[in-house]
Amino acid sequence: MLIDRRGEQIRIDFAAEEAGLLTVLAHQFADVVRDPELDDAPLLARLFPDAYRDDPDASAEFRHYTRDELEARKIGAAEQIAATATEGLVTLGLADAETWARSLTDLRTMVGTRLGIRGDDDEPAAGPLTDIYHWLGELQWLLVDQLDGP
């Protein structure tokens, strides 16, 4: 994967495996958030934490007014990645790149939750899923670095 910025566009050159992996992860993420039958309680608790931990009623009311919009934004961002992550050169405008960066946080949270990561100091055991977790972090870091550039 190579990434660079040309003016108001960020270009990412993906290998077929990288594009395929991003697409699969984005679809999995959207499916878990969208479909109550695929309820993944630990992941959903991390994605949509209680706004008021000491007040269940206030948290329920907050969730009532915000959850649908948050879900729609997260699903939309993941679907954008799934639709645009292709083998070869992917060109993103700055707004789309920002959407990608936010969604990569969610994808990485999904993978990290599956690995049992709960805090910054947790380091998962070596393995393919851990490699994916680290790769998503690297992609996100490089993307944010390009967004912060000139």
Q: How would you characterize this protein structure?
A:
The protein is mainly α and 150 residues long. The protein has one domain (2-40, 73-148). It is built from five helices and three strands; from the N terminus they run E-E-H-H-H-E-H-H. It has helices at residues 16-34, 41-47, 56-84, 94-115, 128-148; strands at 2-6, 9-14, 88-93. Strands 1-2-3 form a three-stranded antiparallel beta sheet. The radius of gyration is 16 Å and the shape is globular. The mean pLDDT is 89.
Write the layout of secondary structure elements.
Elements: E1 2-6, E2 9-14, H1 16-34, H2 41-47, H3 56-84, E3 88-93, H4 94-115, H5 128-148
Antiparallel strand pairs: 1-2, 2-3
Defining traits:
single chain; about 150 residues; 3-stranded antiparallel beta sheet; about 65% helix
Helix content: 55-70%
Return the structural class: mainly alpha
Order of the strands making up the biggest sheet:
1-2-3
End-to-end span in angstroms?
21 Å
Question: Concise description?
Answer:
This protein is mainly α and 150 residues long.
